[in-house]
Write a structure and sequence with these properties.
The complex is a heterodimer of chains A (333) and B (502). Chain A has 333 residues and is mainly α. In chain A, 71% of the residues lie in helices and 0% in strands. In chain A, 44% of the residues are buried. Chain B has 3 domains: 239 residues, P-loop containing nucleotide triphosphate hydrolases (Rossmann fold); 165 residues, Rossmann fold; 75 residues, no CATH class. The chains are: A mainly alpha (333), B alpha/beta (502).
Chain lengths: 333, 502
């Protein structure tokens, strides 16, 4: 029956409420500065230029992967398979050089092509078979992890590796490819990715449609937006950025270790979710994701400098993620 | 036969923010009979029954059972007094991955376990089977509820209600989703229960049904009690008159519009659900109504026309050319726009700004080079639209969730005005909208027709249908029951056909 919808009260009710809003918007950025201050006091070398470059370099792969997750989140999806996709593209690109002596273009195209297949598989299962995003990409995560392992026969791929037939591999990774993973290029790639996706999501028609779909799928459909097409696009993009992450990783370490992408997944997820609240965006956004990655990078770097053992690091990262989520979801109530 | 017990509700009033939903309502019925409760949409039937079943605790007034005053404030109070309710949405009350038996005995396993920690399964299934046999329903108590049909689920809910002591059983529009044979089966069970001295309160929009199954009828209108009669002493037309009362005065703008050629015509449309053999056409500059009660299939028709639900059969023609509408995005390209009924769920993006909402259906217009959105142009047109439609908002940047219902609706309509369609489908556009904004919306719709657009206006508010349309299709059970010229008809006739009269 006609139970009228009460009009939501738009005016801030009390002072405490405003403080919370302030924390919501600027909490992450304030935290970053507070952390910088603490670490700098504890160890002045923390704010030296070389260390800052170090931090930026260390977060660039996480950021690129997290940007992919951000895109999947923007259509109210969630791509958990990016970690495995990183492993896959890492293995593909290195093996192209080492096993098959291919040139740089073929190697990179093959890696991105493999990732696009993953994205296509994800989007088919999600859009056509209608499996919930998170469950499907979780399944894909296992499948692709297995495929990457099978492809490399469970071995680390590197130059001069021993092949199954006992000979040594003869292919080399071109020196130009090695540049990608070094300063300044690795940082430039990250900045370009963040900027491009930020512009894509905020200033183009397609980005707007994705946010509309993420905000209200049914309304989007009834507005005539081809929802499925954009979901497919989101998963293809997410896989592409995972592939770029894998390629950069390959260039940085010059090998393809087993499950090399797995450790990046949780950091990237954390960065994307921390990014939700940055500057009060309230939705997945590229800049926020970058800030989230910076926060995690500073924490890791600073804690290492303060001699916190590496095995305790995940406790801190997980806590930060929980706090960021609390900030986002407590407010939505 | 036991002694009949009398249930009385006296001077029941209840208020929700801004609305007085019930005003000094009187209601009474006995055990061992079926009592019909009827009224137009918004008359307060469901609200009254929610009071009786304890869903709303903040009413004023008294409830007497067998002459004794009882205080019913929570569903538990109601159950202790032997009052049970089966809501229309059966799925909300059932747990799909448990068995029929577990669902029937849910209240016992939740409330009557005491200190026991282990569930006695054989006892539960035995008791559930007993109840099902008593009702003469042939479902195994070990079937999973998720495997049942809608009608069977309803049976399970009724079984649950009578698993405890049940003096009065409220059925809130139980027949709306049922087929004819399923309805017959339900009626059989209702009669069995009446024989066992249960008092049934039966809410329905379908007059012929009520006349078939009930002995007494209470009519409500605008949250007030109108009359209680025995079915034997009344007839359908009289009930319709009571439901309507005097007509509401409303301001409908009327422009003289030359009605042009047929723009959209539909022949024999079927969808996977309710819609059967639906045919209609709408001309240039014409406002065509789709009238019908809640659940008659109006929304389904609108969605089928817009490509938003699966159409299995039927021929759609736009300007004489046969077309296939695959999905909503296809419909938009072909010049059809839909303002959906569930505004917050389907029509607007509450988290987004007014301007994002307004341009969401026509963003291509504002993006050229590399798909970049021309925000300046977007802002300009949004401000224009806000002014044209009189949307009350602090700015075009304000989030839509902070606007009132009427203004949200204007935003939902505005987005299609920018996209400039040929055929506009409105599904209950005045739902939850205040009087002032209603008038604006009527003006807007008439204005569109004046500009030569074709309008399809679906509503259960018959007075609106009469006020604004040129021609009307009355829909009953997913089918066109009657096509009428608005000038030559009246509310009684519309209501007659929409309640299944022939």
């Amino acid at each position: 029956m006609n139970t009228a919808n009460p009009v939501p009260n738009t005016k801030p009710a009390k002072k405490g409420f405003e403080l919370f809003e302030f924390l919501y918007k600027y909490g992450t950025i304030i935290t970053i500065f507070v952390l910088i201050a603490i670490f700098a006091i504890a160890n002045p070398s923390f704010i030296q230029g070389s260390n800052i470059v170090n931090i930026l370099r260390s977060i660039s792969i996480v950021t690129i992967i997290a940007i992919g997750i951000t895109i999947s989140l923007s259509v109210d999806g969630f791509d958990l398979s990016v970690g495995s996709t990183v492993s896959l593209s890492n293995a593909v690109v290195v093996s192209m050089f080492v096993w098959f002596s291919q040139n740089i273009f073929i190697a990179i195209l093959a890696a991105i092509g493999a990732a696009l297949l993953v994205g296509a598989f994800n989007s088919f299962m999600i859009v056509k078979v209608k499996i919930p995003d998170m469950l499907m990409t979780l399944a894909t995560m296992f499948i692709i992890q297995g495929i990457a392992l099978t492809y490399t026969k469970g071995a680390t791929v590197s130059q001069n590796m021993i092949m199954p037939d006992g000979s040594f591999s003869t292919g080399v990774i071109p020196p130009f490819f090695a540049k990608i993973g070094q300063v300044p290029w690795i940082i430039i790639i990250m900045v370009v990715v963040v900027a491009l996706v930020h512009i894509f999501l905020n200033y183009t028609k397609h980005g707007r449609y994705m946010y509309v779909i993420g905000g209200n799928k049914e309304a989007a459909r009834l507005s005539g937006i081809p929802v499925n097409k954009y979901k497919v696009l989101a998963y293809l993009l997410s896989a592409t950025f995972a592939a770029i992450g894998g390629i950069v990783l390959a260039s940085r370490v010059m090998t393809a270790e087993i499950n090399s992408g797995a450790p990046y997944l949780m950091d990237a997820v954390a960065a994307a979710f921390i990014g939700l609240s940055v500057l009060g965006a309230g939705k997945p956004n590229a800049f926020g994701t970058f800030v989230g990655a910076v926060l995690i990078g500073i924490l890791s770097n600073g804690l290492v400098m303060m001699s916190v053992p590496y095995y305790a690091m995940d406790i801190v990262k997980g806590t930060v993620l929980a706090l960021a989520l609390a900030l986002t979801y407590y407010r939505q109530k | 036969m036991c002694v009949t017990i009398l249930l009385e509700m006296k001077n029941i009033s209840i208020e929700f923010p801004g609305v007085k939903a019930l005003n000094e309502v009187y209601f009474s019925t006995n055990t061992g009979m079926t009592h019909a409760l009827i009224g137009a949409n918004g008359a307060g039937k469901s609200t009254l029954m929610k009071v009786l079943s304890g869903a709303y605790g903040h009413y004023t007034g008294e409830i007497y059972i067998d002459g004794k005053k009882v205080d019913i404030r929570t569903p538990k109070d109601a159950q202790e007094n032997g009052i049970q309710i089966v809501y229309q949405e059966v799925d909300t009350a059932l747990i799909p991955y448990l068995t029929v038996g577990e669902n029937i005995m849910l209240n016992e396993t939740v409330n009557d376990m005491g200190k026991r920690q282990f569930v006695k399964w054989n006892k539960i299934h035995k008791k559930a089977t007993e109840i099902l046999t008593r009702m003469n329903v042939n479902i195994s108590s070990k079937t999973l509820v998720s495997e049942l049909t809608l009608a069977q689920k309803q049976m399970v809910l009724i079984a649950r209600s009578i698993s405890k002591q049940c003096k009065f059983l409220i059925l809130d529009e139980p027949t709306a989703p049922l087929s004819h044979s399923e309805t017959t089966e339900l009626f059989r069970i209702v009669r069995e229960l009446v024989k066992e001295d249960v008092g049934i309160i039966f809410i329905s929009h379908r007059l012929p049904e009520l006349f078939e199954i009930c002995e007494e009828i209470t009519v409500m209108k605008n949250g007030e009690f109108v009359i209680k009669e025995t079915i034997a002493d009344t007839n359908q037309n009289r009930i319709v008159e009571y439901m309507l009362g005097e007509k509401l005065e409303e301001q409908f703008p009327k422009y003289h519009v030359e009605i042009g050629e047929t723009v959209l015509s539909v022949e024999g449309l079927h969808d996977i659900g309710l819609v059967k053999n639906f045919s209609m056409h709408v001309n240039e500059g014409e406002i065509v109504g789709i009238a019908g009660l809640v659940g008659a299939g109006k929304t389904e028709i609108c969605k089928a026309l817009f490509g938003a639900s699966k159409v299995t059969k039927g021929d759609i023609k736009i300007k004489g050319k046969s077309v296939k509408i695959k999905d909503p995005s296809d419909a938009v390209r072909k010049g059809i726009a839909l303002v959906p009924e569930e505004r917050r769920k389907e029509g607007i993006l509450v988290q987004e700004s007014v301007s994002t909402n307004l341009t969401s259906a026509s963003l291509s217009k504002f993006s050229k080079f590399l798909s970049f959105v021309n925000t300046k142009e977007e802002k300009k047109i949004s401000i224009e639209m806000i002014k044209d439609l009189g949307i009350k908002t602090p700015s075009e940047e304000a989030k839509v969730q902070n606007l009132s219902g009427g203004n949200q609706q204007k935003v939902a309509i505005g987005k299609w005005l920018i996209s400039d369609a040929e055929v506009y489908i409105f599904d209950e556009p005045t739902k939850g909208v205040d009087v002032g904004a209603k008038k604006d919306i009527f003006e807007l719709i008439s204005g569109l027709a004046k500009r030569g657009k074709s309008i399809i206006y679906a509503s259960c508010e018959l007075s609106e249908i009469l006020g604004i349309t040129d021609r009307v299709y009355v829909v009953y059970d997913g089918e066109v029951a009657k096509e009428l010229e608005t000038k030559a008809t009246n509310e009684e006739e519309l209501l007659f056909y929409s309640t299944g009269g022939k």
